[in-house]
Specification:
By secondary structure, the protein is α+β, with helices and mostly antiparallel strands. The protein has helices spanning about 1-15, 235, 345-365, 370-380, 385-415, 420-430, 435-460, 475-490, 495-510, 515-525; strands at about 40-50, 60-70, 70-80, 85-95, 100-110, 140-145, 150-160, 190-195, 200-205, 210-220, 225-230, 245-255, 265-275, 280-290, 290-295, 300-305, 310-315, 325-330, 335-340. Strands 1-2-3-4-5-6-7-8-9-10-11-12 form a twelve-stranded antiparallel barrel. Strand 4 and strand 5 (about 100-110) form a beta hairpin. Mean pLDDT is about 80; it is low at about 5-20.
Length: about 525
């Protein structure tokens, strides 16, 4: 039951406070380490001062150098101008979902017991435990997890300086579950939480086996500053002794040197002509402290690695109008960027564009020959005029369809009316100036001439007849009219011999009957 109560108190203590130990570094909270990593060479300073006069230990001032490269952190601290210690840590795991994990060791030095006061036997009054865990080689394991962009939590366990035997803090080391103390070997728990205001400071609460701390931290560029209250438990539980006095802690860190260049991203660009869509060569100009130029080859494709930032870029190509664009290069990401440049208009280009507009109007009006001529002239003036090229193709298709229709009609007319067929082929010739068509028209004309010649040869020569005495008609006008109707009917029905007999009978009665003469001749021709 006693151990169960101790475990519950431990949990409450961990999540209501965040503990600190006497250490300082670029990626520490106030005092406890985290699994975050930095990069570069840092100068760190840290100090604390008691809030009351009951504590016999006055202020402490500590300095140090810290070296981060890749995942390794090595620091050299100088405690109160008396003793030096070496700290080291290594990030063994970094994952986008799971917490990052680091292992480390602090207070590698020539003394068994060490504190920010820099003495083997002297320490803060409330940390003079009996037995006192030796702070030398304080090994630890720590995990840090970010929950979104503005909140993170850290939890870990370590020996040495992370272990204490205070009235409540002893519940944070594993001796709380045993009947005896093991100051040299026992491990204690520590943890902390950080809440960051967007573009502002971070608020921190932390705890370990020796004290609880609350503070505010601000990091901007090369600078990081911390202001905290150490040994916060002395405020919450003031009756534990005459020497339990909280302390104000101030620390700052300055990045003295960077070992890596700025984070970079990739810009992948395609440069094309706006009219043709074809790739074109050119150059891209941006400012990164100074103006820089990137050459774009004739393939129009370019990839360049540049520091992550927001840029105003200018793109140029000979014979084209320049363009500007605002782009953002994100760290470790590729920005795919396509640019289409329009050509700079010469007098010929302007004339070409004007001709295209005129040709379009003629096309809509059905004046295809004029439209084709204008589109062709526009393309000759400016071969890059895609609209002229498209217009020529459109007009040629319309002319092709028109000619095909006229040819089909002309071929059908050849079997019925050669004169009309010739006229239709001559219309085709106005669209399509072809020797073949001219030759075909001549053939039709020759055929028509031959047919007319044959018709003349078939026509009988008129006989010279002696004048006869006028004979009175033997048929009445009504009878002649009836015979004429019968003859027309027989002619229409194709009974030409019968029609001839009717018309001859009429002419015998009335030789001057014009209708009978005409249809008699036609009937004979049909025979």
């Amino acid at each position: 039951m006693k151990r169960f109560i101790a475990f519950i108190i431990l949990l409450i203590f961990m999540f209501s406070n965040v503990l600190q130990a006497h250490s300082f570094g670029r990626k520490n909270y106030i005092d406890i380490p985290s699994s975050n990593i930095a990069e570069g060479l840092f100068i760190n300073m840290d100090g604390s001062y008691p809030l009351g006069s009951k504590n016999p230990t006055s202020g402490d001032l500590n300095g140090g150098l810290e070296f981060f490269i890749n995942k390794l952190d090595i620091g050299l601290n100088w405690y109160s101008g008396v003793d030096f210690v070496l700290n080291a840590s290594y990030q063994v795991m970094k994952h986008p979902i799971f917490p990052s994990v680091s292992i480390g060791i602090e207070n590698i030095t020539y003394r068994t017991k060490i504190s920010p006061l820099g003495h083997d036997t002297t320490t803060f009054a409330d940390e003079g435990y009996d037995p006192r865990p030796p702070e030398v080689a304080s090994a630890y394991l720590v995990a840090t997890k970010a929950f979104g962009e503005f909140f993170e939590a850290t939890i870990g366990m370590g020996r040495g300086r992370f272990v204490g035997y205070g009235p409540r803090s002893h519940f944070l080391n594993f001796d709380a579950f045993l009947d005896s103390t093991h100051a040299n070997l026992v491990f204690g728990l520590f943890g902390g939480m950080k809440l960051t205001v967007p573009h502002g400071p971070s608020f921190i609460i932390e705890t370990d086996g020796r004290d609880a701390n609350l503070g505010i931290q601000y990091e901007k560029g090369i600078f990081k500053g911390t202001l905290g209250v150490n040994k916060l438990e002395h405020v919450i539980f003031p009756s534990e002794g005459s020497f339990l006095t909280p302390r104000i802690n101030v620390g700052f860190s300055i990045k003295a040197k960077s070992f890596k260049g700025p984070k970079r991203g990739l810009l992948s660009m395609d440069l094309m002509d706006e009219d043709t869509g074809e790739p074109i060569p050119g150059r891209l100009i941006y400012k990164d402290g100074e103006e820089k130029t990137v050459i774009i080859p004739s393939s129009g494709k370019m990839r360049v690695s540049i520091p992550s930032d927001i840029y105003l870029v200018s793109v140029y190509s000979q014979g084209h109008k320049a363009k500007q664009a605002k782009i953002r290069i994100a760290p470790g990401q590729t920005l795919n960027f396509s640019v289409k440049l329009s050509k700079t208009l010469t007098p010929n280009m302007k004339s070409s564009l004007k001709l295209v507009q005129t040709a379009r109007n003629h096309y809509r009006e059905g004046k295809l020959l004029e439209a084709r001529k204008e589109f062709k002239s526009a393309f000759q003036l400016y071969s890059g005029n895609i609209e002229a090229k498209k217009g020529m193709a459109l007009v040629d298709k319309a002319i092709e369809d028109t000619v095909a229709t006229l040819k089909e009609k002309a071929i059908k007319l050849e079997s019925r009316n050669i004169n009309e067929a010739i006229r239709m082929w001559q219309r085709v010739l106005t669209w399509e100036d072809s020797k073949t068509i001219k030759g075909h028209i001549q053939e039709l004309k020759n055929k028509l001439s031959l047919m007319q010649k044959r018709q003349i040869e078939k026509k009988p020569k008129p006989k010279v007849q002696k004048k006869k005495k006028e004979v009175k008609p033997t048929l009445t006008s009504q009878q002649i009219s009836d015979l004429y109707k019968k003859g027309l009917k027989a002619y229409i029905e194709g009974n030409y011999s019968k029609a001839i007999s009717y018309f001859q009978e009429i002419l015998q009665a009335n030789p001057d009957h014009a209708g009978a003469k005409r249809y008699l001749q036609k009937a004979k021709e049909k025979m």
